[in-house]
């Protein structure tokens, strides 16, 4: 995996170009010299973690022949007060929708993502207490 990050030369904005040929912009908070034009790098780290685990949960449920129709995860993170301001806790709240989804199967999919498949949350779990809960929405 590769990525190149370049300072745009203006404020604290950076352009990332990924190895899969996608680009995204990051910016800093105004109090740190940024212009608030794009997400902060740590916000993207949190968003990427949410994407990683949601991907796993959907894939696991589909492989288990569950009639999953939607998966949304909200993440709430706390950071250390002093530098480095690592994540110290992250709570994942999953909202999984579908037809006749079994709570034990959804719980197992979330647990498998947390313990085995989601590289991002497993890595962040080295500094942060990870917790999760879920709700099932019948459609």
TrEMBL record:
<dbReference type="InterPro" id="IPR036102">
    <property type="entry name" value="OsmC/Ohrsf"/>
</dbReference>
<dbReference type="InterPro" id="IPR003718">
    <property type="entry name" value="OsmC/Ohr_fam"/>
</dbReference>
<protein>
    <submittedName>
        <fullName>OsmC-like protein</fullName>
    </submittedName>
</protein>
<dbReference type="InterPro" id="IPR015946">
    <property type="entry name" value="KH_dom-like_a/b"/>
</dbReference>
<dbReference type="Pfam" id="PF02566">
    <property type="entry name" value="OsmC"/>
</dbReference>
